[in-house]
């Protein structure tokens, strides 16, 4: 899970799935998983060549997505098992402000089959419950769910981006109740002051947008491809501005899923802004995408005010915070996590 206003690659990734499944539902096209196969039932003429290509090209991802959703429905509402087997200390991970458990899919895969990994889904993500506007309340909700699912520790608590404060508070709550928290790992954590200080917030958002743009254009093979990408991004910004300058008073139809996610995002950011961390004596590992991110405006060094013994680990120079848990950066970040836990066990 981040507290910036820009759409992260992972939120776009999840949105693509949501849009694809919504498009299929409108056309009364049903998809389901049968073992290791993706099945489809569609009315005559409904399954266009474009939709067929999308289903074929992303079959593995869609199967993983549907399996995760099915597994989540069988668990306590906050617990989403990404890897339920293994002998290592289980990880319970708090996503960023969009609340997407799938943001940890790639990382959990690279941590291996012996590492139990559970993502935590916040209230409001399912569109049925109301989001909470205090970090302390969200952490308390997660603590109850974790103890219900696994009554005794040890636990490893993970937080990503703006989910870091909730993970930090969650570890404090569990520790106060004498549950063993082996380690708290914060991936690219934002400190609440990132959004509490306007100059810092603007700098962080602007830098993030620039880094994301440069990261994506660097992947493109030709100048022409980069120019086309720039044009597409520019058109996106223009389209986003159109509703702001339009004068129509006609009601706009709103997708209820998108509306609930937007409410969750705004509520989570408000909770993040008003949270004040307090001292914590347990082990904390802060894993940053790269050393330059210390100057990103995210203020990771301010965590030392409440955890002066925190350990810092740095990813490769070309790693981007918005995609650090995804391919192709996930293997390097998984290695950093293993370094931290191996150090603990020595």
TrEMBL record:
Sequence ranges assigned to domain Thioesterase TesA-like in this UniProt record: 92-294
Superkingdom per UniProt: Bacteria
Alphabetized Pfam families for the sequence: Thioesterase (PF00975), TubC_N (PF18563)
Protein name: Thioesterase domain-containing protein
Lineage: Bacteria, Pseudomonadati, Pseudomonadota, Alphaproteobacteria, Hyphomicrobiales
């Amino acid at each position: 899970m981040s507290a910036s206003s820009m759409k992260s690659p992972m939120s776009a990734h999840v949105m693509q799935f949501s849009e694809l499944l919504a498009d299929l539902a409108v056309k009364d096209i049903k998809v389901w998983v049968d073992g290791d196969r993706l099945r489809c039932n569609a009315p005559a003429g409904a399954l266009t060549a474009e939709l067929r290509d999308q289903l074929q090209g992303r079959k593995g991802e869609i199967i993983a997505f549907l399996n995760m959703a099915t597994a989540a429905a069988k668990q306590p509402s906050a617990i989403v098992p990404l890897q339920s087997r293994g002998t290592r200390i289980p990880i319970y991970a708090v996503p960023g402000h969009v609340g997407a458990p799938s943001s940890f899919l790639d990382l959990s895969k690279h941590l291996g089959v012996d590492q139990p990994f559970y993502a935590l889904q916040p209230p409001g993500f399912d569109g049925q419950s109301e989001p909470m506007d205090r970090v302390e309340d969200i952490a308390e909700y997660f603590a109850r769910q974790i103890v219900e699912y696994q009554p005794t520790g040890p636990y490893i608590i993970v937080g990503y981006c703006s989910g870091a404060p909730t993970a930090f508070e969650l570890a404090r709550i569990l520790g106060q109740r004498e549950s063993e928290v082996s380690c708290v790992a914060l991936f690219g954590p934002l400190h609440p002051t990132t959004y509490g200080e306007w100059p810092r917030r603007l700098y962080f958002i602007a830098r993030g947008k620039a880094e994301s743009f440069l990261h994506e254009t660097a992947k493109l093979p030709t100048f022409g491809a980069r120019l086309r990408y720039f044009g597409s991004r520019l058109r996106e910004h223009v389209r986003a501005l159109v509703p702001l300058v339009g004068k129509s008073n006609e009601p706009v139809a709103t997708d209820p899923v998108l509306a609930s996610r937007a409410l969750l995002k705004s509520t989570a950011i408000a909770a993040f802004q008003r949270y004040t961390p307090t001292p914590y004596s347990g082990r904390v590992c802060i894993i940053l995408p790269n050393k330059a991110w210390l100057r990103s405006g995210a203020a990771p060094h301010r965590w030392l005010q409440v955890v002066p013994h925190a350990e810092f680990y740095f990813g490769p120079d070309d790693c981007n915070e918005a995609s650090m848990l995804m391919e192709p950066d996930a293997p390097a970040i998984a290695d950093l996590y293993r370094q931290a836990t191996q150090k603990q066990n020595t």
